[in-house]
Design a protein that fits this description.
Layout (H helix, E strand, L loop, with lengths): L2 H20 L22 H9 L4 E4 L17 E6 L7 H12 L3 E6 L14 H9 L3 E3 L1 H11 L3 H9 L3 H5 L4 E7 L12 E5 L4 E3 L2 E5 L5 E5 L5 E6 L5 E8 L2 E6 L15 H12 L6 E4 L11 H4 L3 H20 L1 H8 L9 H15 L2 H20 L3 H12 L7 H10 L6 H14 L2
Amino acid sequence: MNDRGGTIVWLGALLVVLGVFLWPDPDRPADSRPISEDRHFAGLAGLRLWLDAGGVENLSLRHRYGELRKIAAPQTGNLLIVNIPGVLASENEEVDALRGWVAQGNTLLVVASIFETPFWQLESGSVHETLLRLTNLGLQRDHDAESATFEAGDDDPEQDLTDLLEVPTWIALSGATDSQTLIGTEEHPLTTDLGDIVVPWDGSRWTCCEQKETKSEAGHAEARTEHVSWQALLSQASAGQAVLWERAFGRGTFVVFGHPSVLSNAAIGQHDNRRFAMNLIATYVGPRGAVIFDDAHQGLNELYTAQSLWFDIRVLYTIGFLLLFWLAYVLADAGTWERLTATGESRAIGISDLIIASGGYLARRLQRGSVVAGLLEPLRDRLAHKWRLPPELALEEGLELERPHLEDDEIVDFIKTSRRRQRVNLVKLHNLLLGLRREIR
């Protein structure tokens, strides 16, 4: 196999391997994430279309938080909806820019998967760590309350099974197996007319906020709550678990909600979920403000540039993969390996080197018609001597006389092709001439 054929074979094998590993699976369901353009169960396209129908300005953030000041919206009275965890990790510089943007008179709504684990949640990354970086809200797990809830549920296992089978579809899609009704704990515009807002619940319990033990004058340990400015506005009716907190920050507001599925496409039309969205708009969006969806950190962004392409680890892996196959091809060629490992003293120059060099020179310098004529001359002279013909007529008339002894007339086609200065397969012509010489002896 020559170099060209070997390269084609190896590249074909590489494409097959890449196709096996990278070809999308048609049976795999489409992933759904909280993105303003996602129309599946976990997307926010329903909320965006509802805002459009209501004449509420809404935008999609496709860059880092530092670009919030540059998008087409007033500098105050905006509501930014951030779902965590996300695909793109937030950097320290953009977090500082986000805090400054909120402090000047905007609202940051962080919808975190605290009390439910939706299917779009990634295994990597910490929800609470990101929540703490963005808003300084630190939650502590209430293990005693979870143990009490677990023991109470063990009294009637058949009832637990019945509840599991009766879980509504949108709650099951959120990854939870139970639901709770929310009630307002404070008189606040956000809790107005919320009579039947239902959320999924996975059974976990968290308390706000960070608690640190201090020593009193009597020497007893006391728990002192930090960030007392956080205010719980919504809680579960039966479990008493707070699920939404609010805190003033400069001239703006931080709002943290622990149920990410309430505003999703699967749930926005259920119960009082749309009323909850209306209260969000009425409470935190100014007269000329806009609702901004953080699509960038959920994977829908415009951050991938030509410069970042060369630093993408996937591109480096691909280049390394190609180099590995090229190296395998080079090492698999025995002649190449011999040339790489042989030295001038260990290998003597022989007659084969002269033939290879001469053949290479002739192939580069001689015209193809001259090579064909040189191959046909011995056959022409043999036929002219045998049938006593002129040399210029020996090939055509001699072959006619020898036709009964020949299996085919391919040699005639080669002669005509050579005269028309078309490309001729020299190897095939050489093999055919060897057979003809044996036939006409």
